[in-house]
Each structure stands twice: as C-alpha cells, then as structure tokens.
Amino acid sequence: MTKHEFRYASHPVDARSYGTDELRNHFLIETLFTANTISLTYSMYDRYIVGGAMPASEPLKLETIPYLKSENFLDRREMGIINVGGKGKVTVDGDVFELAKKEALYIGKECKEVLFENVDGEQALFYINSAPAHKKFPNKKVGKEDAEVIELGDEKYANKRILNKLLVNSIVETCQLQMGLTELLSGNVWNTMPAHTHSRRMEAYFYFDLEEGQTVSHFMGEPEHTRHIFMQSNQAVLSPEWSIHSGSGTSNYSFIWGMAGENLDYGDMDFCAPDQLK
C-alpha cells in the first residue's frame, strides 16, 4: 500500500507568525514507517518527496501517486534510499540490491518497477528521498565503505560528528538529488553548527538512532527569526531554502540530510555565526 500527502511551500514572513501546531503541520513529517506501507510526502519545495517504506509480511511495490501525473513513479524522477533498519533488499527492474543498515541506493529516472523487501527475517526500514530529474543516470549502491567520510566538530562545542557523503556527485551521478548521513559521537548533541542557509537548495532532515525517551530540538527559520520543533526518532522535517537547519538532542543520534535544487555544490552555504542567531 502507498499512502501520500501534500505540503505547500510557506513564505518566510508568514512562517514568523506560526505557532507550534502550524510549524509542525507545515514542516514536520511525523510518521514515515507503518507496516506493509510506503508513506510519501510531496512538498512544493523543489517538488521534493520524503518517504519511508516498511515491508513486513510482504514485499512492497512503489506505486505512482496522483501529484506526479505519470504512469510510473520514476518516469520523470530520481530516487535515493538509505536503509535505517535491519537487512533488506530493493529490486529495481529485476536487479537486486541488498542494503544493510546505513547503506544507500541511487535509482535513476525511467525505472519502472521498484520492490522493497526484508532479508533473513530482519525488519528493514527504507528512508526515501526523490526529486525531479531531466536525465537518466545508472542505478548504484553505495555502502559505508564507499562513502566520502569527513570528521567535523569539536567536543568543546558538543558537536563532534562523522559525516558520510553517500549519494553526492563525487560518488554517484545524479541530476539534483544529494543525500548523506551524519553520526553524532557519544556525548555530542549539536549538528550543523555554525548554522547556514542555501537559497539555491532546499533540504530535508531525518533523525534516527535517538535513544527512547529522548528528543531532538530542530531549529529552523530565518537566522534572525528562528523557530524550533521537538522531534522523535524516525521523524523528518522539511527545510525551505530560506531556513537554517540545525538541531540539538538530549542524547547523541544520527541524521540523514537530503537536498535538491539549483546546483550540486555541497559547499554552497551562507553561514551564520552562533552569536548572530536570534
């Protein structure tokens, strides 16, 4: 079964007046994983789709959704998948890709059939991002050993972390989709500091591996008009091009960043120093 919902884009001046419920309704994606279901959220930010697939008793087939007006989901789209659960496999037009936890798969435009399944009785959780595509590139699995790994942060500032570039243009050819995975080390809680915006790209954050009973406060909004959303493990949040995207947890955690837009330049960021945030 495929479930879907739609999110409009928000003007930054309008967002300044949003209360807690409005912020959560516009930007937070609370439920990504439901047994035997593919859950998708179509956003008007660069027409980005965020979703999750949780095969349980049966394989799940990716189906098109009404907003796409296409026979197949990937007729005019590319897709990135990162497994955040037990061992699973994705079959793309007959080709099988096994994904362990924190391994990724890029699927190019015009693929017809995509199936999600568990392996060896484990429960896979497939986190999905998708963006419009103008050209077909080859499907490619990216294991953690294939990632471009960068160590960032400092224990002094509680933000020591390991960034794994997975589906980025230095590793996989894509039209505009980029995805990676960042792991906060034990005792560290802050991500993406100093905060930044990039008006050329939107972004989505997915938080996972957060200890039960703990929370992450995701900070968003214009640098001089920030807001926050408290989140749990296995939830995602949309980040408009005008918004910062940073978070701090009550324990360490991992998160997946995905983005699409005008360019593929990972370093294209407009930074805001911590003491300039309001």
Automatic annotation (TrEMBL):
The keyword Metal-binding applies. Signal peptide: none annotated. It catalyses: 5-dehydro-4-deoxy-D-glucuronate = 3-deoxy-D-glycero-2,5-hexodiulosonate. Pathway: Glycan metabolism; pectin degradation; 2-dehydro-3-deoxy-D-gluconate from pectin: step 4/5. Its cofactor is Zn(2+). It is an enzyme of class 5 (isomerase). Binds 1 zinc ion per subunit. Keywords: Isomerase, Metal-binding, Zinc. GO terms for biological process: D-galacturonate catabolic process; D-glucuronate catabolic process; pectin catabolic process. Gene3D superfamilies: Jelly Rolls (2.60.120.10), pectin degrading enzyme 5-keto 4- deoxyuronate isomerase, domain 1 (2.60.120.520). Zn(2+) binds at H196, H198, E203, H245. Its EC number is 5.3.1.17. It comes from the Bacteria. GO terms for molecular function: 4-deoxy-L-threo-5-hexosulose-uronate ketol-isomerase activity; zinc ion binding. SUPFAM superfamilies: RmlC-like cupins (SSF51182). Catalyzes the isomerization of 5-dehydro-4-deoxy-D-glucuronate to 3-deoxy-D-glycero-2,5-hexodiulosonate. Belongs to the KduI family. HAMAP family: KduI (MF_00687). This is 4-deoxy-L-threo-5-hexosulose-uronate ketol-isomerase. It comes from Neptunitalea chrysea. The gene is kduI.
